[in-house]
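Cast an eye over my tokenised protein here and flag anything odd:

===
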Amino acid sequence: MGRSSKDKRDIYYRLAKEEGWRARSAFKLLQLDHEFNLFTGVHRAVDLCAAPGSWSQVLSRKLRGKEEQQEVKIVAVDLQAMAPLPGVTQIQGDITKVSTAQEIIRHFEGHPADLVVCDGAPDVTGLHDVDEYIQAQLLLAALNITTHVLKPEGTFVAKIFRGKDVTLLYSQLKIFFSSVTCSKPRSSRNSSIEAFVVCQNYSPPAGYVPNMSNPLLDHSYDVDFNQLEGPNRVIVPFLACGDLSAFDADRTYPLQLAEGKEYQYTPPTQPPIHPPYQQACQLRRDNQLSKEEAPSVCPSQDQDQDQTGTSS
């Protein structure tokens, strides 16, 4: 199949390249917006863990395409460098540092944000318990900086890995938002445990002061809360969003080539800038990756061979 293989296997990967999106994840935010109207009345938006920039692209196209585009300000934050985008201010910083929150507000000229989104995720290990825990910590870090920069009644959207302890995260988010919904866009693969929490109407408790060193409030949480059954059971609201007739992310689609035409590969819109694996790829091309050395023979075995001519 060559380069056409992934284009056949992943329709959203193919569409992202054809429509000029940096990653297929752009469709996830578009479908979330279609369901929740995330961009209505938004003039200041923050994209956390933004690289390679597909969600920032969506914000730029959707918000700056309106008449009041001169009033729209978009800030993208990531530890990695990201290729420039029109109308998007980039901050290469750490979302766990208060200085990053202060810089965001400075770009907004002292005003808080209307919308904060975060599509960040760790490099998954395949061990679901580990992956869920690390993702939960990343979500809480995003929530923490959001409490520094989001205006009252603002909206927060972030990736979450759905697991047995999702109700604990849900209880933390409900402290700060009156409406919290766990949603699965159509473009998110059914085989993936990822989903997105859409938190609306930011309303922190009275007297709450954001603090980077202590992101969560001390509150009573019953360890058996997730084990309740019957009418007492608390179920996290879950919504599958996106047109049900839209493309299935887990299905293979033909390339739909015109008769007599051959497949032409479309390169990604924007390759990553200085990705972590860049050095390893270069070493591999030059055949300079370190190789595991063969285990040496034990000295005792060498001595036995010298004395008897055979190993014991």
Summary: The mean pLDDT is 81. Residues 278-308 form one domain. The radius of gyration is 24 Å.
